[in-house]
Amino acid sequence: MKRRILLGAAAMLAMSAGVSMAQDLPPLAQKDSYKVGFAQTESNNPWRIAQTKSFQDTAATCGWDLVMTDAGGSAAKQVADVDSMIAQGIEVLFLPPREESPLIPAVMRAKAAGIPTFLVDRSVDKAVATAGKDYVSFLGSDFIDQGKRVAEWVIANHEGEGKIIELEGTTGSSPANDRKKGFDDAIGADSRFTILESRSGDFARDEGRKVMETLLQAHPDVNIVYAHNDEMAIGAIQALEAAGRKPGEDVLVVSIDGTRDALQAIIDGKMGVTVESSPFFGPLACETMKRYAAGETIEPWVQVEDRIFTKENAAENLAGAY
Ligand code: GYE
Questions:
Q1: Quick one: pLDDT at residue 23?
Q2: Which domain holds residue 262?
Q3: 63 and 175: one domain?
Q4: Which pLDDT does position 16 carry in this prediction?
Q5: Residues 95, 218: one domain?
Q6: Rounded to the nearest whole angstrom, what is the distance from the C-alpha of residue 232 to the centroid of ligand 1?
Q7: Above 50 in pLDDT, residue 189?
Q8: 46 and 154 in one domain?
Q9: pLDDT (mean) for 101-117
């Protein structure tokens, strides 16, 4: 009884001081500067490098004293990185969880330590951790819709039968799960298309190339490659060319991200489409954090809108690509 009254008083005090107490989330005071953690998943592709740079560039203008780590492609290392940031006294955490389940304990420990957490670009298993309760919000794209838009473009632009190899992203990551669902469901609705095989290339160029080499031998009749990101699409193009195939002529290659190399491949006629997935999260992270500190209730999903790049607009977007 006494405890409840005390908690109520604390909540009222917090509200009058303009800090958020919504649904048990840790509050964040309004200040000029914050010690901010950004726990990167890996740095082996241009998307990740552009994202890291976006956080670094934003740090100065948003008053961030940035603590950054690079998990080198290991979910276990990323969990340890978050633990070390908590020990270093970060006040806010921006986290792209490499995989949906293994990062949940890190999210929970940040919450227990009173650190508001914003998931950026990847999410966690929603059945286990909840936005507005365990973390503030997920900032990112609609990955199901990205996969669906690629499928719709293929359906509209590919004539005749389509025999597809799918290169999946990192196993257990939200973009891999959702880009697969969105694409497979939409393409499955058109009986002209068959998915011959679907396998992970870990969102990496070289892994995509190797997996494509193997799958090409098993399925020489492939005429469409759907990669969950541009790096794997570029790897697949390399494997196809090494095997004497002509990407863009006898094999349609499609993917997601909008990197410079992918736009160039579209201009060169080797790729059909890439649906954008922007890595430039710094400004959105800053704005959302400031809204939270001002006491606003943040929507559980701060959705990023994505463009689509084809031969109609690839050249004009090349200069701004990463
Ligand atoms: O598509 C990929 C990166 O999580 C949205 O991760 C991100 C994805 C992006 O490694 O290239």
A1: 55
A2: 143-277
A3: no
A4: 47
A5: no
A6: 11
A7: yes
A8: no
A9: 98
Q: Measure the CA–CA gap between 278 and 285, rounded to whole angstroms.
A: 13
Residue nearest to atom 5 of ligand 1 (CA): 121
Mean pLDDT, residues 285-290 taken together = 98
257 C-alpha to ligand 1 centroid (Å): 7
Residue 165 has pLDDT above 80, yes or no: yes
Is the same domain home to 56 and 116?
Answer: yes
Task: Quote the pLDDT of residue 4.
Answer: 41
In angstroms, the Cα distances linking 14 to 9, 22, 106 are 8, 10, 26
Concatenated DSSP letters for 106-120?
HHHHHHHTT--EEEE
- Nearest C-alpha to atom 7 of ligand 1 is from which residue? 121
Do 193 and 166 fall within a single domain? Answer: yes
- Counting ligand 1 atoms within 8 A of each CB, the residue from 47, 70, 98, 256 with the most, and so the one to mutate, is 47
Pocket-forming residues, ligand 1, beta carbon under 6 Å: 45, 47-48, 121-122, 175, 203, 229, 231, 256-257, 277
- Pair of tokens at residue 114: 């009173």
Which is it for the CA torsion 58, 132, 300, 292, positive or negative? Answer: negative
Arithmetic mean of pLDDT, 181-206: 98
